[in-house]
Amino acid sequence: MTLTETLPTRYYIDPAIWEIERHQVFAKSWVMVGNDHQLPKSGDYFTEQVASWPIFVQRADDGGLRAFHNMCPHRAGPIVWEGNGHQANLVCRYHGWAFDKEGLLLNARDFGAEAPAGTCLSKIRAQSWRGMIFVCLDPSTPDLIEWLGGFVDRCKEYPTEGYRFHSRTVRHTSMNWKVYNDNFVEGYHLPLVHPAMCKEVDALDYVISGEGDPRWNIHVAPRRVGQTWSGVWGYFFPCFSFDIFPGGMAVERWLPVGNDKMDLIFEYFFDDNSDDADTIVKDSEEVADEDVRICEMVQKNLVAGLYQSGSLSPRHEHAVAEFHQLVREAVDPHLV
User: How are strands ordered across the β-sheet holding 262-270?
Assistant: First the structure.
C-alpha cells in the first residue's frame, strides 16, 4: 500500500505560505465571526480579525447585517473600537470622516479640499446560518447557504436553534492554524491525549464521514454505556466546527492571527432544561486544554527543523489527507 504523506513542514512555518492562505483560503471562504445574539439592536457591532484583516459586523436599521473592513480610507484609522459596542453612525475614530450606511463618504471633516471621488469603506458580506454569523471578503464566492452545500441538510438532525448562549472562552495559542486543524479531523490521538474523554466514548470506533465534499465531515464516536458525552462533532473547512452535548452544543473556531499564532474560541449553548451545563463545559474545556498542549508541542517540533514530513494512517487520518489536499490546491498554484 502506498501511504499518503503529510504537508511538508514549510506549509506550517513559512510566512510566504501564510500570505497565500490569507488570500486564497480565508478571503475566499465564509468564516464564522460571531452570533446573532451579540447584535440585539440597530447600531450594535462586534469586531473580529479574519486572517489578520480587522473587520466589524453591525446590525442594520432593517434588522439585517452589514460588515466592513474596520479601516478608514483616509489614513487607516478604525471606524469602531475593538470589541462589542454600539455606534449609530459610521464615523472614523481617528479624524472623523463620516460614511453613510453603505460605506460611501458623506463628509471629510475639516479636510480643506475635496476628498477623492469614490472614497468609501471596504464593504464585505455578512450572512447568518442557525444564529451564527459568517463573513466573506471575496465577492465572487457564492452566498453562505449555497457555499455550505450539503452540510446544511446534514446538520438538520441536530436541532440547536433553541439553545441559549451560556459562556465563551478564548485561548491565544502559539501554533499555525493547520496544526490545530490536523488535530481536529482525526480521532487517532484520543486515547493518549484525552484519557478522560475516552472513558465516555469508544475511540477505537471513532468514525469520520463526509458525503463527497472534502470541505466538511461529521465525526461520531459511540458513547459508552451509562455515559453522557454525545460523541458527535461537525467540521467545515477551513476553521469551523460544532460539538454536540446532551441538551446543548459548543461552537468551536480557530482564527489565525499570523503564521504562528491562532485564537481558539469556544462558545457554549444549552437549552433551558439543561441541568448539567457547567460540568459539560468543564469537561469540554479540559479537552481543549489537552488539544492546545499537544498542538503547541507539535508546532515547536516543526519549527525546530528536524521533521520534514510524515505518513498518514489510512485507517484514522483520511480526513487529514483531504484537508491537506485542499490546502495544496489553494496554495500550490501561487508558490514561487
Answer: 164-173, 262-270, 248-256, 240-245, 232-236, 216-220, 207-209
